[in-house]
């Protein structure tokens, strides 16, 4: 039996796009013979797995050798693929070197490498007008009253050069029949129907895959909000040559459409200028955003979802590094809060909550990749103010162009 066991590996189709990174993790079954090195290979390109002999408390009862102490047999790392790699079927292999100088080689997994995300043939939508703005909406068993209000608010936009892709995530036949009827009433609505339920994260990815590559702008849309009539026009007005994404404030309403708050920022801080803060807590919500379609080359494919990661968080990070982000300090749509929402308003204070959120991210990451969660592990300490007269340097500011 091989000593090296891979638990998290890429499977099936692996889309490279402009380049991608895949994560692998696992453990060495032999406690008494630690790994000295571990390398992965695709097409003669060997890359080293960085993290070896990590704690794996969860394996104490299933390993061979001396397990009287906490076993340090876990490993995890990444493998980077660039756009120049040959596409088609590929095998990921490994080469392991152990402390006693013995070696082990084998197969990690078989994958199919694709250069781009091509829409499945049964998912393609027919877009005929070449509209500059493509609205990407995802649905799954929507409240029909809420959905009709959302669609009506799109139709009533002051800016009318749009088309709307509605990607349904395998709702029931009765639900689909109503959505189809609503789409037939407006030729700019195009319904895509998933043959299986993939969840909201991949459903948004599937919707974005179908955006025509000659489009100029993309707006994300939920199934239960209400856009103000000038939403698209107001966001478009803020773009210049360097702008990658524009987003706005929102008004919070309940299921009965009673106003809860005139702003999203009553209990949390807005941020679109510091990457380190944006990485920890996203403030750029998808439904409030309009971004350049040219970003799709970097946005797609979505990275593997870890924990509670959201599609709009990934898009915000790509937009941050791909240009300038602007914010419109007025609510341009009504965000409906009700029991069926995926996520509601979240309170986050940059100063108080960064450590607890770091701990949450660490736990989610280690759980996702079969790594141990060490209860007394400390979060990175917050930087302390310098006593010198020199102003402290802020990490992760937007790179200078």
From TrEMBL:
SUPFAM superfamilies named among the record's database cross-references: Nucleotide-diphospho-sugar transferases (SSF53448)
Q: Which Pfam families match?
A: Glycos_transf_2
Which N-terminal stretch is annotated as signal sequence?
A: none
Query: What ranges does the record give for the region Disordered, renumbered to this chain?
Result: 376-401
- Which CDD domains has this protein been placed in? GT_2_like_d
Glycosyltransferase 2-like domain sequence ranges: 135-261
Specify residue ranges for compositional bias: Low complexity.
379-392
Record Gene3D superfamilies: Spore Coat Polysaccharide Biosynthesis Protein SpsA, Chain A
**InterPro entries, alphabetized:** Glyco_trans_2-like, Glycosyltransf_2, Nucleotide-diphossugar_trans
Q: Write down the PANTHER family for this protein, in alphabetical order.
A: GLYCOSYLTRANSFERASE, GLYCOSYLTRANSFERASE TAGX-RELATED
Q: What is this protein called?
A: Glycosyltransferase 2-like domain-containing protein
Say which species the protein is native to.
marine metagenome
